[in-house]
Amino acid sequence: MTHVVSIKGLSKRFGRIQALSNVSFEVPSHSIFGLLGPNGAGKTTLFSIIADFLKADAGTVEVLGIDTRYIWRLRGRLSILPQDAQFQRNVPILEQLVFFRLLAGRTKRQAREEVVHSLELVGLQSVAKRRVSSLSHGMVKRLGIAQAFLGHPEVILLDEPTSGLDPASARQIRDLVKQLQERATIIVSSHNLGEVQELCDHVAILNHGNLVLAGSVDDITRADREYNLCLSRPLQNSELQQLSSIEGVRSIKMLSHPGAHQGKGAAEYLVTLNLSADHVEQDAVIAAILRSVLDMGVTPRKLTEGRSLESQFLEVTGGQSGHAVILDSAE
Prior knowledge:
Blueprint: E1 3-14, E2 17-28, E3 32-36, H1 43-50, E4 58-63, E5 66-67, E6 78-81, H2 93-103, H3 108-121, H4 137-149, E7 155-158, H5 167-180, E8 185-188, H6 193-199, E9 202-207, E10 210-216, H7 217-222, E11 226-231, H8 237-244, E12 249-258, E13 269-275, H9 282-295, E14 300-305, H10 308-316
Parallel strand pairs: 3-8, 3-9, 6-7, 7-8
Antiparallel strand pairs: 1-2, 1-4, 4-5, 9-10, 11-13, 11-14, 12-13
Helix pairs in contact: 2-3, 3-4
């Protein structure tokens, strides 16, 4: 697997605070990579070193095989969207973005063509001549994405691209990011671990300046593949033992309370299932569980996968808040 970002032995200290301590990991080509960690984990420091805003005390960062200490060699190939990207409120969108491309060395015609294409990607072509002050919060977010898309960057860093957006707008941004994966490698942040699990194929988790977990989302969550099964009635101990004897079931637990709905239809009872990490035919295990439940005369009403990335995050960060924040306030 080709890696386009390589971080080796990165350390950074601010006085008595060790912001990063010997951090090493790699970002695969054309991946959507999530960088996670609680506040104070070292995320902003890492982001700033990648962008060459800060110098590391030790270690190296290479993007596309280029040491970021020579960041000018990555001009046009690396794009960054800070969380609080600002635009001139009283200047038309098209005019601002064209100006940015002129600064990057494009001719006026090239700059305009790139800007129009980028605005089309994010669905803002119809408001290109409007001032930023007239845009909604969601539209400003999309404008920031459009700026990050300008030209043909091969690596894009997006800091909290869906923060503060309503669900529909956040879905649009995620869809845009997924479309970009065909032509670029993307490092993305999100407050929502469920969103990260849906969007990203690889993640790295920092805690107190240390790398505590890194790898593909599938590999990280496979060891904690959890399912919640809603049933029409509670299972007896003998029935639970019968389900636990199915090959591939690691553990099973019947919750003592119904899954709500009193006065709103039939009660539902929740069973939590953990499947063995080394059992590759997990769909077959689920099918066997459902057949057994039906044979017991119990109606399965809903099956959902547990938020296993969140479980792993809480475990490796010592049970801190599941709202993972990336590249937030200065650390």
